[in-house]
Amino acid sequence: MKPLLPWRDALHEVTTAVAPADPVEAPVDPSAMGTVLAQDVRSHWDFPSADVSVMDGFAARTADLLDPRTRLRRVGESAAGHPMHLALAPGTAARISTGAVLPAGADVVIPQEDVEASDDEVIVDLEAFGDVTPGRWVRKRGCEVRNDDVVLPAGRRLSAADLAVAASTGNTRVRVHARPRVAIVSTGDELVPRGSVPPPGAVVSSNDLLLAAAVQQVGGVPVDFGIAPDEPEGLRATLERALDCDIVVTTGGISVGDHDLVARTFAALGVHWAVHGILLRPGKPLAFGGARRDGSMRHVFGLPGNPASTWVTFCLFVAPAIRRHLGVRGAVLPPTRRVELRDAAAGAGRRAHLVRVVLHDDGTASTLASQTSGDVRSMGGADALVEVPPGAGELPPGTITDAFILNPWS
Question: How far is CA 177 from CA 153, 174, 297, in A?
Fold first, then answer.
């Protein structure tokens, strides 16, 4: 066994080992949501592509706006998507709508509330209109983006708005870091499939569902390998197939008991463990390592089997690894919120204790009554984790501290 590491030291081992995936091409559509750009996205044209109106009103020439009540002859119309192709002659004005192209010769738009208009004539109220300046109420060509400008920088995680920016500037495909394929393997002869009624001493397998949903939320592609048997040959066959994926996550069987076969089976398959055991409650048995397959490094996580331990170690270690693989730069841990404890948070001796809490709208947090790692309700009912440092007996009520937000990726 390796010495137990402080959990932040273990996280450092993870984030320094996992590198961004090689770039791939992705279509500019919802399937690219959450991927990280491996290359700058540039505009293929000026945006807007012509001088366009900001208002509904009339396009005119500032050279004609001389008298307090200027009279202009009304000619033509420029509508969005239907530009007026004739140039605007001196002494005339053309009806124009928001987003429509300014006719040649025009250099100003007069809002419709500042004119009196008939079928033949437009009378401009210059007192209401105010300053007569060329370009007023006009978005000039290229005022927002010029051709070949960078509109989205490399390293940016694509949002819905980013996809719209890429599409509107002429991009149909972008270069992103590939999503990792994440193998999920549940272990334990006590597990029965969902939909089954567990006999005495058995439990329904739920960690696989938890992990598959969480992997998808973070941005990976879950690959469920089901429940692996607690016997050497069957377990080895399952783990060997799982190592075809970029990241492998197992639950259960990672401690040092007689029936905990996962660590030694992985070692026999060439996995080198950088971490095996951390100074953390819940999550002490966590293991992390890697093996080379087909010239690429496969990263392996052995998570504890108790549901709350599985969830906490996923959020603190596996999610950061997926984010690094995706190319996310900077912070990889869940965000924190400053809270005041309504009640005490107990310590865990020489281990740090991540206490599950419920957040309230007034900025306070309540600790859940049950902090056992096998309590499923304590996992689903928690909003955040409050850290009690090693050696601290407890954090008393009224303590102001940071809380890690759980499930921040949806």
Answer: 13, 10, 16
